[in-house]
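Final report, Chapter 2: Outcomes

The project's central promise was a pipeline that accepts a single protein chain and returns its three-dimensional structure in a standardized token representation, suitable for archiving and comparison. That pipeline is now operational. To close this chapter, we reproduce one record exactly as it appears in the project archive, with the input sequence first and the structure output second.
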Amino acid sequence: MLRTGLAAVSGALAVAAFAAGVVVLTWLPPEPTSIAAPAPGSLPGENAAPAVLPADSSSAEQQRPGTVRLPDGATARLVRTELTDTGVLPIPRGLGDAAWWGAKLGADHGAALLSGHVNWEGRRGPFDELWRMRDGENVSVVDARGGRWVYRVDDVVTLPKETLPAQAARWFGQDGPHRLVLVTCGGDYVGGTEGYDENRLVTATLVTRPTG
């Protein structure tokens, strides 16, 4: 079923409190068109503008640098995002963009968190596919140099939003084994600052590094 309404709304969802301080995901409504994004800080709650990255590709062999590709072919451009001084992690406004925070690809430890919108005004975003992903499927990330990193899904869970903060260290912590964690919203649309009442989390383990 296509989830309608705002995929994400202005406001903050506290998801973690660990060594780096309190991490807050700020979900902003995606841009309705492909026009240039407003300057940082020009909209309420906005602290970072999307990076300019190559367009998506429909072919796995031609996957563009700076993108993540999900098992059924949905592709999102990655926007490397850091915490603000107040511990906010902005989610890019582009429906086809995903925030990337935390560990680097292939790091020794810690979660590489990729977070994106599920939909906007009836249009599915790439991360809508998280709701259909299963254990054993592959997620590929192509870095800025064109190197392909393949992660295999080993855990798919749905959590009520209000329970995520207490579990944040488990999912997003920068200690423990390296993993890729993809997050989006879903469930019932409740409006207000919550948007949807659930989060979908997909965790994957690195299986293939770039060659050469």
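Archive annotation: The longest helix spans residues 164-172.
This record, like all others produced under the grant, will remain available to the consortium after the project formally closes.
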